[in-house]
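Pasting as-is:
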Amino acid sequence: MTQSPRPSRQAPGIHHKAVGDILVTALNDGMFEGSFSMLAAFETGMAEQMHRARFRAIPPKLAVNSFLVQTADRTILVDSGCGGVFGPALGRLTGNLAALGIKPADVDT
């Protein structure tokens, strides 16, 4: 049996939702490792215990998402992601925009 080649990069993280005449697209910028102090207003030990009980990663991995809102006359980007500020697993937003055929210069708001 021939094994399929492994992908060299992640497929674009894109999800569309129409709201009337407006198209809202969630775009993933990537993931970063956070800390429980960023996520919850309760004791770190309890947060770790809850994550372990649900087989979740410690430290927690957090998705960073942005939203592209397209109207008849506007292309709006809500949040521009993190770039590489929080690590190498981020900075996917520009590539995900490109997968939609959108250049950063196409965003007007």
